[in-house]
Amino acid sequence: MIRARRIADQFVAAALLQVASGLVPRGQREEWRAEWKGEIWQVIHASSADWQGTVFTCGAFKDAYLLRTDGRKPRAFHALAHGSALRCLALIFVVGLVGFLTCIASPSARMALAPSSSDTTRTVLISGDRGYRGIEVPSVRIADYRRWRTETRHLYSAMAFYQPSVESVTAGKHSLKHVKVAVASQSMLSFLNLTPALKVALEQNQSTHPLLLVTSNLYQALFHGKSDAITRSIQVGGQRVTITSVVTGEAWPLPSSITAWLIEPPNVLNRISAASRGFVVARVNPGGSAASLGSCWYMFVPQPEGGLSRFTCIAISGILHAPIWVLWEMLCLALAALPATTPLDLGDYPHHPNRHFALSTIPRWIFFAFKIALIVPSVCFWSIALAYYANPLGSLAAVYIQMVVAFLGFLFAFRWAWRDQRRRCPVCLQLLSNPAHVGRASHSFLDWSGTEWICSKGHGFLHIPEIPTSWLSIQCWLHMNPSWHSLFSDTCIE
Ligand SMILES: [Zn+2]
Questions:
Q1: How far is the CA of 74 from the centre of ligand 1 (A)?
Q2: CA of 94 to the centre of ligand 1 (A)
Q3: Interval between CA 298 and ligand 1 midpoint (Å)
Q4: pLDDT tens digit string along 406-447?
Q5: How far does residue 348's CA lie from ligand 1's centre (Å)?
Q6: Neighbours of 7 (CB within 10 A)
Q7: Average pLDDT in the 454-469 region?
Q8: How far is the centre of ligand 1, averaged over its atoms, from the C-alpha of 365 (Å)?
Q9: Are strands 308-315 and 156-171 parallel, antiparallel or unpaired?
């Protein structure tokens, strides 16, 4: 029985050894295999335990691998080693990717990144004389809306009124407080991003009861996903209403976050006090005089009590893409401020007769361009994510947060990119190491005093003057003499 096990163990070990020998260079394979066969025979016959030979042979794979790579770490590991150019780019890419995913997770940030449709370009939000503050604060009286529906047909093909409020919503025994509900006119249905079939069905509804649309998130919070909840009625601010439809969060294309819409029939909306204020959205008539006025313009309306009132009309696309404009402005501002924080000169790199060194200028600039190209979207994504993760589009607080984050992000990221580029070897793009101070401070004018950095692969030295002088005002690279190369085991110099 023991003999049979040993034969089986020997057979399995021989098979594993045959596979492992495939990793060994061809010239050394036979000798390596013979050595291992001898070792395995010894292990199998010296031990009384079962399958010792098989376990021992597993070590042959590591031995064969080390023999093949000559003890070196794999090339991929070298490329991502500490201080390497690829690792630097990979880290910036990961930071940008996390920022992008954070944007995707936030409805407001996602809307800011989405391309604008022709519908959002033609749709305007009309606010009182508050400019962009009118995006957040209800500023149009419903009396004005009632008059505009008939008096401004030459300007607008459709118009809707909505009045957001914070209500408590109750479904059975379950109650939610601070739910953002918008009481809206029936014409609001044409402005919501609903499926065509649902939009037609709702617009043809002749019921004298209000229609209630809730987002899927609110629906989940109220009913915990029960499918029969669609037939239930809930209390919204003390009024009992039946849920008409559950829609996605993207159904609301306008600024501010709304989780439920109460579409009131005209007779109910007419009972609202004339002085009550809300928001008015309108779709610009393509053939009207307002079609060519751009993304922000003013509308002067005669008032019944005399005089003219000024209203600001802001295109929804302008509000949705305000974060992109903020980014452009902050990018320009950061680039203008950059020379005040760090010198833009990347240093003096003398020409080298070796063609290998001469060609190294191209990857150096490619690396720098990639670094900047990755930094810009990373800062963009993070500034939008931080500003709009908890704030709706159109929020002034979010705009201020984004301005600060984007400006400081661009400025310090560019500053870091320039400083990082100056601290790299121009040949292998590895971060330089082992800084050493050379010379005394008194030598600055008649000799040289500063810090010397060295490439760990033996490509050269970087001299950074302590005090810039007329003959050495910026850092200077010094190629290493070939006689030094034997000191660097990892050198790639040819
Ligand atoms: Zn180097």
A1: 19
A2: 25
A3: 61
A4: 999 999 999 999 999 999 988 888 899 888 888 776 666 667
A5: 16
A6: 11
A7: 82
A8: 15
A9: unpaired
From the CA of 79, how far away is ligand 1's center (Å)? 13
Taking only the tens place, the pLDDT of each residue in 195-219 is 888 888 877 777 777 888 888 888 8
Quote the ligand 1 centre to 457 CA distance (angstroms): 5
The predicted model scores a pTM of 0.69
Note the pLDDT tens digit of each residue in 47-90.
777 777 888 888 888 888 888 877 565 555 566 777 889 999 99
The band of 369, judged by pLDDT with boundaries at 50, 70 and 90, is very high
Cα(432) to centroid of ligand 1, in Å?
8
Cα separation, 452 vs 134, whole angstroms: 59
Question: In the chain, what are the domain boundaries?
Answer: 2-72, 120-317, 433-487
